[in-house]
Design goal:
The protein is mostly helical. The chain contains 4 helices and no strands.
Length: about 80
Amino acid sequence: MTQRVLELVMALPPSERAELAERRWESLPDESLDTRLARELAEEVGQRRGKLHRGESPLHEWSEVKAELNAVVAQVNA
């Protein structure tokens, strides 16, 4: 990939970059376990994104999520 192509892609809005990434991923041959697993994960992400767009998934402030993660890490390290 040339630097110019990368610059053009990165200039796209996030939604278009995500669509481009999905289309590019789907174009890869399904030859390995890693590829199959990644496809399954991509499907899960797509399902979760759909729930988010339909208002079926709650949103949380990053500060709250970060605090919860820090608490879990503190428990593990204790």
